[in-house]
């Protein structure tokens, strides 16, 4: 796998950056990464609980729909959530669930009963409450693990995109939702990107995951990636770049970047090539 990675850097504690020359190489490595986390989680706990974002992230997971993964992974042990979702119908063009179903779930043998879309018939506030209740029930059943640090759910893997403004999940710069400590799932009604109503995991839940992966492609993400990662940006207000606040409590964070998204890091010689 190392041969497919243009470069890899170890940065802050439990944080790794992987840079790829092509989207196909990124998809190949991401599939292998997810596969490894899945196999370890099933072996150690009996389940694999993953939270997804929408957008281009799902298309980068396409290799999991192909051999060998579509045959070798224990799909019956997968439990699938969304770290963010738009408050729209499940068949709406802007639904993360719809995109995931069409691009991924329809192509692998997961159990429908292990897939958890939000309640499309509720208000966005009710949908967030319902979603947290479902997670709490699975924590009680020990399907979802628990962080020993803060009693938050401990997802095996949370997969995130980063926006050009540095947002992750539906946690946007300088938004009050970034300050929440006790809620596991919250809602917003003022997203700067349409649609305005969304539910989202809170930072404590994201940071409690065993593994977090952030995927970024394109030059329009380069500045946000640099602000999120580089030590030279310590003076920035934390809430102005939400991705900078993704700091695993006792898990691991891996960045999957193409050359364009990593260009500001490389220009600043922020990290030393390891290979």
Automatic annotation (TrEMBL):
Species, as recorded: Urochloa decumbens
State the superkingdom: Eukaryota
What GO MF terms are annotated? 6-phosphogluconolactonase activity
What does the organism's lineage look like at the top? Eukaryota, Viridiplantae, Streptophyta, Embryophyta, Tracheophyta
Q: What class of enzyme is it?
A: hydrolase
- Record EC number: 3.1.1.31
Name the Pfam families for this protein. Answer: Glucosamine_iso
Gene Ontology terms, cellular component aspect?
A: cytoplasm
Query: What protein does this entry describe?
Result: Probable 6-phosphogluconolactonase
CDD domains on file? 6PGL
Domain Glucosamine/galactosamine-6-phosphate isomerase: start-end pairs? 22-255
Free-text function comment from the UniProt entry: Hydrolysis of 6-phosphogluconolactone to 6-phosphogluconate.
List the catalytic activities from the record.
6-phospho-D-glucono-1,5-lactone + H2O = 6-phospho-D-gluconate + H(+)
């Amino acid at each position: 796998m190392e041969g497919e990675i243009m470069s890899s850097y170890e940065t802050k504690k439990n944080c790794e950056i992987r840079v790829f020359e092509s989207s196909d190489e990124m998809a190949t490595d991401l599939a292998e990464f997810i596969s490894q986390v899945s196999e370890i989680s099933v072996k150690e706990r009996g389940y694999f609980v993953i939270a997804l974002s929408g957008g281009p992230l799902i298309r980068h997971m396409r290799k999991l729909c192909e051999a060998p993964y579509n045959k070798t992974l224990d799909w019956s042990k997968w439990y699938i959530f969304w770290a963010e979702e738009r408050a729209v119908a499940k068949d709406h063009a802007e639904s993360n669930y719809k995109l995931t179903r069409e691009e991924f779930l329809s192509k692998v043998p997961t159990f429908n009963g292990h897939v958890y879309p939000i309640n499309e018939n509720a208000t966005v506030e009710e949908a967030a409450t319902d979603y947290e209740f479902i997670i709490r029930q699975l924590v009680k059943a020990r399907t979802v693990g628990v962080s020993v640090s803060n009693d938050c759910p401990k997802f095996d893997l949370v997969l995130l995109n980063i926006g050009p403004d540095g947002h992750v999940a539906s946690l946007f710069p300088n938004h009050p939702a970034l300050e929440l400590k006790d809620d596991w799932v919250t809602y917003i009604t003022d997203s700067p990107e349409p649609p305005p109503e969304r539910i989202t995991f809170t930072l404590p839940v994201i940071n409690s995951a065993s593994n977090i992966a952030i995927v970024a492609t394109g030059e329009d993400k380069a500045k946000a990636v640099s602000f999120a990662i580089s030590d030279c940006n310590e003076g920035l207000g934390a809430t102005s770049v939400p991705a900078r606040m993704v700091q695993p409590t006792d898990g691991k964070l891996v960045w999957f970047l193409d050359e364009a998204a990593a260009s500001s890091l490389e220009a600043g010689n922020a990290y030393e090539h390891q290979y």
